[in-house]
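To assess whether ligand presence alters the predicted conformation, the chain was also submitted together with magnesium ion. Input:
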Amino acid sequence: MTVKLSNVSKRYGKDFSLKNVSLAFETGKIYGLLGPNGSGKSTTLKLIAGLVYPNGGKVEVDNEEVTRKICRKVAYLTELDMFYPSFTVGEMVEFYVSQFADFDPKKAEQLLQEMKLDPGKKIKQLSKGNRGRLKLVLALSRKSQVLLLDEPFSGLDPMVRDSIVKSLLSYINFDEQTVIIATHEIDEIEPLLDEAIVIFYGDIIGQKNVETLREEEGLSVLEWFKSTAAQMEGKK
Ligand code: ADP
Ligand code: MG
């Protein structure tokens, strides 16, 4: 297991964002962490990235308990814009080269071309969609063991999303990487996923292998997600 959460709880103030969550993630697979807004998806990724710490339980990456230093092994695409607006695209890439030993500048160059991003352009002049693409370029250019993508397609228009979803697979190194994608937009990432995990206001309420789900239950991830979430709504 590259990533492991054992009985993890996280609260902000008196409200729990995660309640006694246990999850394990293997190398070579793409996991979808799916749930409505406010369910704890981003919190889960931040715990794995070492940006927040649990109030109870343990988070491990590569058999090491997570601290801030884990950023050496974990690439993390945040929900937020974490750019210096006065940097150019190329300067942002240089900055990443200086920060992360596993950053591959050649791959970044290739990705910038494919995403049609001009290295000379200032970040503040980029559209929302292009900033989204730049975030993807920066995350995908790292040869990290763990790749965390938080709402990676938000802000991209539907046509662009489709082509990026398709090309994403070619940028992942399945021999070495574990990929976790958090999103509330399930439909479009479905083709990427090996495993789907549903998180519902701090609880993990289901996990399925996507192929098994399709073959044995004849359900799409979205259909399964909806029925699982509906059962929970009924119980609330
Ligand atoms: P998701 O990514 O699924 O939308 P989050 O993990 O961002 O959910 O949030 C889960 C819950 O934790 C929400 O109720 C949110 O308001 C709360 N939360 C997240 N971060 C903080 C924070 N820094 N301070 C206070 N509450 C927070
Ligand atoms: Mg979130």
